[in-house]
Amino acid sequence: MTLDRVHFRGIARHARRISRGIDEREHQRFAETVWKEFLDPLRDDDGRAVLRPLDDQELREIDLEVAALRDPVFETAHGLDSGTINPTSYKNGLVLDVAQAAMAAEPSDLDLHRQRSLITTVHSGDLASVEEIEERLDEGNTHSQLLRAPQVPRFEESVVHELSLYLAESQHALAHFDAVEDLLVLDGPIYPKGMLNWADRAPELRDLLYDEPEPRDVIENYVHLVERAVDREVPVIGFVKNPATKAITRTLRERGEQAPWVGDTALFTRLLERGEFVETVDEHGETHRERRRDTDALTYTSWFRSRGGADRLLAGNGDPGTGTTDPGAFGIDRELDPEAYEVTFFALYDPRDDLLYRIEAPLALTEDEDCRSALTDFVLREVAAERGPPTAVAKADSLARIGQRSTNDLRDALAEAFGTDRMRDYDDRRWGGEVG
Length: 436
What we know:
By secondary structure, the chain is α+β, with helices and mostly antiparallel strands. Helix content is 37%, strand content 23%.
């Protein structure tokens, strides 16, 4: 049964009552107050700076056509991405995920594009049933590894997913970084954010993060990638297409401020969106205020240093939650000054699609003003021209993505190899999944 028009009208009527109680202009004023008065630096209840400007704190804009027609900042660019089939459970108790990582070059390098890293991470209640394997496939062009996940009483799907995803990405980045000539762009953050978030999710995951070697090995790969980038003077950045950080809004609420936004993306969108509020009259004769968006320019912030949320785990002051200020809390030996690994970022808003992106880089790179400017200019040109992620990232995404048909075929092939069936639920049938 679908919703009738009468249902739509009723729901819309309720929404209009809600919207009349929300003053978007007041939200705009508060966002501007936060920008002017709270972020230089933003401190938590303990007085610890969780965010501070890296340079002059500014909201900036550039005409889309001007940005798109700029000369390229880097002669070449490489993108890196990893994709998975998503966690899959089987009737014999196994839970696994398979990740594929690929690196793309712009201009294209077909030999590099053929290279793959495959990681299959398996969680089993019977440790003896999983034998770890490492081999080369496709005439040596693919590195394939079967990894046994640490045992956890719950969150098995999160564990196999994040271990597969980030191990494939980080191993592939290190294995092929020598092929990168000018710039490497990760499709996502510069550190394994999903895994680092375990520190705040549940005790079991936090213990796993700090006590088991597998997560530490993944984090160590990203640390070494930063060190390789600094040593070769080849920048590494992360292009985050769907930023979900809440460090700023959460800190504001903890300080007693009534931040109305779901997360930091909504705050930066409010700051960067350009336009004017106008009054319109709907078909019911009711007056509404709406914002008409200007769409002729990209808008963006200056760079910030971040020690909020999961970013604190790579900050120079370490993780206060561990009872230590040692930045090597994961037991990782580091070659650079502890602060060099800190996350820095700027936010970029594309009004054509009403989308906000977050661009990250380690402080070791962005503390240099020339490098910071070059990275900013590169991203602005690419987003303006491509109306989305940089070309190298889009290529890597296409190479690493595991399509739905391949996902289903692989899941079934694994079930056959295991001599068992996939675990299914009613949604598999309801939404068109095959029932075997």
